[in-house]
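For the sake of clarity, the format in which proteins appear in this thesis is described at this point. The record quoted next illustrates the convention:

___
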Amino acid sequence: MGAVSAKDLVFEGKLQGESHWIDYLDMVYPKQNTYINEWW
């Protein structure tokens, strides 16, 4: 549930783990647009 997927974090060097756990994280917490920091 964020703007970056687990695979993107692995690519950037911010996350490490076995590939099946990275796939699991992407399934449980899919990449999506968040508008928390939007000004109204």
